[in-house]
Design goal:
Blueprint lengths: L3 E7 L20 E6 L2 E6 L5 E6 L5 E7 L6 H7 L11 E6 L3 E2 L7 E2 L9 H16 L14 E5 L10 H11 L9
Parallel strand pairs: 1-9
Antiparallel strand pairs: 1-6, 2-3, 2-9, 4-5, 4-6, 7-8
Length: 185
């Protein structure tokens, strides 16, 4: 059921592409990476569907939602929360995807269709329990998720398209300001 997932990715690490419009690669990206055969494989999860969780700076769970019902993808749903009443509250997110990755030899990895096979009740229960365990981190749960063959992805930081954190930008501006001498009259 769950094919891949990412835990506690930073909102600042997403290429939202605000104000630039565009289609295809210019729509923004939601990149993750996994190490396979001693090399990092980067995949864009912008078109993924599944469940996601939003957290604040203290890793407190604020919101749980779904992506894929209708036309809203994971990227679309997350982006919608950057401009609504949750916009200033969340800084991290986790996601749990249903689409498998189609790895290719030329690094043009893509997402496949959601598998339409019959799911066993045990698979469904293990997946839902796993999402809640890693998403909410209840203190008395000692076991981890049982996602079967699902692959965990780390967030990929695309320095070319991601803005630096706000405090880093403020420090850079501050450092370029001329020093002001204190004149006493």
């Amino acid at each position: 059921m769950i094919q891949n997932y990412g835990l506690f990715w930073s909102r600042d690490g997403v290429h939202w592409n605000f104000g630039r419009g565009g289609r295809g690669a210019f729509r923004g990206s939601l990149k993750g990476e996994i190490v396979r055969n001693r090399s990092a494989e980067v995949v864009d999860f912008r078109e993924q569907v599944g469940i996601y969780c939003l957290y604040d700076n203290n890793f407190e769970l604020l919101y749980v939602g779904q992506a894929g019902f209708g036309n809203a993808t994971l990227f679309d749903r997350l982006r919608s929360h950057t401009g609504n009443d949750l916009a200033e509250r969340w800084t991290k997110f986790s996601w749990f995807g249903l689409k498998p990755i189609l790895f290719s030899k030329n690094d043009a990895h893509s997402l496949g269709a959601v598998p339409q096979n019959q799911l066993e009740v045990g698979q469904v229960l293990n997946s839902l329990e796993g999402i809640l365990i890693v998403g909410a981190e209840p203190p008395l749960n000692r076991q981890g998720p049982r996602f079967g063959e699902a692959e965990k992805f780390a967030q990929h930081w695309d320095d070319e398209h991601v803005y630096p954190p706000l405090m880093e930008m403020v420090k850079e501006i501050y450092d370029t300001l001329p020093e002001v001498e204190d004149d006493e009259h």
